[in-house]
Amino acid sequence: MSSTVGPPPAIKVLPEPAALPEPLPEPAVEDLRLETVLGALSDPLRLLIVRKLLLESEQFDHPCGWFGIDRPKSSLTHHFKALREAGITRQRQYGLERRSHVRIADLNARFPGLLDLVTAWTPDAP
């Protein structure tokens, strides 16, 4: 059986709108640590969240409900916080909801090729 490996799917980079709320606390680009980023991405649900943001974004950032993940809100809050604190995503507060997007430029600057690996990953079927 032969297997052909092609290029990873294209990452969707959407323009940043004007007048966004300030981001929640996150590590500076120079403070991003590979072991921390990989630790956050080692959870399949967080890896799925990042992959979905990279490949399926319909707008600049997305609320938790957009992902369609059937988990308790407290569980999702934990996963989104872990991604933000690792420096993978940026979150902003819009009223009562937080919206997230991937820090593509920052991660590409620190860890070239990492996001291509994330997009090339294929989740197991449920």
Write a structural description.
With 126 residues, this protein is α+β, with helices and mostly antiparallel strands. Helix content is 39%, strand content 11%. It has a three-stranded antiparallel beta sheet with strand order 1-3-2. A hairpin with a 2-residue loop joins strand 2 and strand 3.
Helix content: 25-40%
Order of helices and strands: HHEHEEHH
Q: What is the molecular shape? A: globular
- Secondary-structure-based class equals alpha+beta
Instruction: Determine the mean pLDDT.
Output: 90
The overall strand count is: 3
Low-confidence stretches: none
Rg measurement, Å? 15 Å
Short account of what is shown:
The chain has helices at 34-41, 44-56, 73-86, 104-110, 114-120, and strands at residues 62-63, 89-94, 97-102. The chain is of the alpha+beta class and 126 residues long.
